[in-house]
Please model this.
Amino acid sequence: MSGSLKGSDIVSIRDFSREQIEQILNVADKMVPVAKGEEKSTELEGRVLGSLFYEPSTRTRLSFEAAMTRLGGRTLGFDEPKGSSVAKGETLADTIRMVDAYSDVIVLRHPQEGAARLAGHFAEKPVINAGDGAGQHPTQTLLDLFTIRNEKGGIDGNHVVIVGDLKYGRTVHSLSEALSMFGAKLTFVAPPTLQMPKEHIKHIESKGLKPKISNSLDEVIGDADVLYVTRIQKERFPDPAEYRKVAGAFTINRTMLREAKKDMIVMHPLPRMNEINPDVDGTDHARYFVQAFNGVPVRMALLSMVLGGME
Model:
């Protein structure tokens, strides 16, 4: 992918250059007043977003719908496959072909890794990956970067500690690779069975970075500028017994944050289970609800750029 995003599929963060990411974040900045309802836009009036969610979603699905609505467009689709012909056995290829005929852009969440790229082969309209199995989640990564940039004044040079399920968590796969483009210092904290896959570590190292691997949050929290917490992905575990061994491995609470820098921020892609105690919500560190809102201006920027609007 190079130059303009008009008509482009958004499948993997690896498809972007640092310059393109910065361009998207700059456009997202301009979208914030519209995302908050302080200004109105009719930029995508008459355009239709096809929203296909084969897996449950709250923030990603609703923020895409909010983004399209804020820009004057409309959304059609389903939020669970049992309410569509998928329940009758329709293939992904055929569903994509149909929705391609009804819409101007397709947003797809699917449990199978690689589904979004496959969909791009069958669609003439742009396909945006809203999460494919344990693979990639590029739009979550972009809103995460937007949050870090806004809250920390930039991305470069920050020490980002990523903790939780790093094996199955598609969010952290995309985010860690994107952060490597910006030269951020990375530390991965997880039980050995849930550490970052070697493929992603090799990709990060190819950018000239050497991430630190740890299974102790206490050892690294004091040096973190950003603490990015993820839940244990129960639905990805092939063996329930393996999930039970690691469930609740890390829980962030107010007492633990006494060791943190005053300006350290805590992020989470949500939903959270027991990884962040509610007593953290009222601290100056908490940014996960701001982070969730940021999905709207960032996805507004993407929809606008993919459909030929702002650059």
In short: The chain has two domains: 13-136+295-306, 138-292.
